[in-house]
Amino acid sequence: MLLAVVLRFCLLQWTALPGLLADRVEISAPVASSKRLNEGLFLHANGINPYDGGVFNQAPILLAMLSLFRQLPAARLMENLFYSISDVLTSWMVLQLASSNYIKQQTPPDLQVSQQAISIISALNPFSILVCVAKSSALFSSLAVMAALTQIVEGQVGSGAFLLAVATHLSLYPCLLLPPLFLLVKDLSSRKSSPWKFLTVFVGSLMTILIFSFLYTGSWRFLTASMSMLFLFTDLTPNVGLWWYFFTEIFEDFRRFFLGVFQLHLVIYVAPMCIKLRRDPLFAAVTLSGIIAIFKPYPSIADSAFYMTLLPLFPQIYKHTRNLFVIAVALLYCCIFGPAFHYLWIYQGSGNANFFYAITLVWNLSQGLLLTDIVFAWLREEWEQLNPQHRGKQCEITQVAD
Known about the structure:
Elements: H1 2-14, H2 17-21, H3 34-45, H4 60-70, H5 75-98, H6 101-106, H7 115-123, H8 126-133, H9 138-153, H10 157-171, H11 178-188, H12 194-217, H13 221-232, H14 243-249, H15 255-267, H16 270-276, H17 281-295, H18 301-310, H19 324-348, H20 353-386
Helix pairs in contact: 1-5, 3-4, 5-7, 5-9, 8-18, 9-10, 10-12, 11-12, 11-17, 17-18, 17-20, 19-20
């Protein structure tokens, strides 16, 4: 873990990568851009409401937190160290999850992944490193969600609910994880009141954070600025998601209808995942995180890095997967050609928006195939646990004639 902190800090402090990566649309989404955050910090420091200009749309809690670092001696060094430690803390919490009793009970002893392997996979994840070096504020949302998962698995219901509220305040869509985490609390707690305590603390914490944000900024402008951007998709900046090209081409008369369709499409997965994956709510939460990474309005590789980092916690399902090699090659293909297609479109002018959107379609299709594969593998593992006489046997789906 120390090596991971040193690596990130050196890249932040002594290279030109932060400035270069901050401009990459794959890494810095408009709602998590370090440049927009710096603009908000500058306006706030000069007594101007940062939400009045329409450029800054991030949470006030980030303003309050990072403004403190700007007042310290050696501010840049301290800020870079803060980003490095925050990102590696996420990896450390993955390690805590892996060593928890919940994961050990879900995983057969002969299939448990070593803590050293999990530590290396999470701490040296190239996507996570890129997000950290770009200073994307998405890493704080990932940290809050990971901390919430860790606290809930360890039985700390109140702190888990508070951290989920913080994550919701930072990027909204972690609230979709509330149902599977509610079920997880219900499974882990011996008290019947604990799930409702979790829900109550979540709502109370979220309201408290909103009131603090109002007192800190002096208006409710932060709420309309951030929510309107997510719900109305006002910024059509290209990203690795599916929304931007569609809403660039759509007729204005149909915009509101399809905004509702796209937002609803995110929500409809919650109930089926919670019902079908009821025996393992944590896996349901990880799967929903992957769905959010595909279908949210402003995704980045930070969202993909988050749920991919958690997949090694379920080693028992990998023997049932079918397409991991093809998916890995497709994702690698996107990582290589995505920046190239964006360069041809924006800088060379020898391509058009279709170039970049095509590669983002492949990227999201690959993630969809990955989620489909691991959900199938989980369901197959569950079926074999319920039918041990068929474990290891080749099974086929057949149609029974009348």
